[in-house]
Amino acid sequence: MVTGAARGIGRAIASRFVNNGDEVCATDILEDALRETAAVIGARSYPLDVTDGAAVKRCVRQIEADCGDIDVLVNNAGVMSRYSVEEMSEAEWDRVMDINAKGVFNCCHSVIPGMRLRGRGWIINIGSIWAAHAWPSRSVYAASKAAVEQFTRCFALEVAPDGVLVNGISPGIMATDMTRRIVEDDVFRAAFMTKVALGSVGQPDEHIAGVALFLTSPAAGYMSGEVLEVHGGYY
Q: Could you tell me which of 90, 148, 97, 98 has the C-alpha nearest to residue 123?
């Protein structure tokens, strides 16, 4: 089950798992884009608003009825926000925190009973470089992703005794629809690229999807509570 799978990082991860021979259930609130993505990559599609806990539970039950056990959950659904604290409304703060942070909780809360019962499971939460690095006008986005990363560490301790591995990926700036506006901003790009050792923007299919697949492989079988930074050597 991959959330936010209609485009960007979520689509790249879903596609990689499909190519690995896995049955993938792609979810997203963007129904048209989700259907198109699912058709192209060969996944099942399930429209979903991750901020609605009851809807998440229904979706999980439907996936289990259609496909069987959910062995892997990738929490990727998220939104960007670019307001200074002074400019930001309370509603915008709540919107970003609900999608980026509460959405992760809702999905974990819904899948974990089955994973515990079976004694296996892999959960991957997508964080962000901004969880650990400050940048102007990213306060709520950074706070939401910092919450996701610390949630990952704490939750991993709760479920490790039951054979469930919880890890995270912290991407740098990736070439996606969500980041297009800032990537195409010459001032931002010039400032950001001076701090990236590899000197380029990342590509979700090349630089993130394979890391997600690795985290569900035997090679990562002794890893839990880790957040892997994939940002081209940002310093």
A: 148
Q: What is the CATH number of the domain that holds 221?
A: 3.40.50.720
Containing domain of residue 126, as a range? 8-230
Given the residues 46, 83, 141, 235, select the one marked as catalytic: 141
Model pTM score: 0.94
Is residue 76 within 8 A of residue 2, CB to CB? The reply is yes
Residues 107-164 have pLDDT tens digits of 999 999 999 999 999 999 999 999 998 888 889 999 999 999 999 999 999 999 999 9
Q: Is 141 a catalytic residue?
A: yes
Within 10 Å of residue 211's Cβ, how many Cβ atoms? 17
Does residue 3 sit within a domain? no
Residue 16 falls inside a structural domain: yes
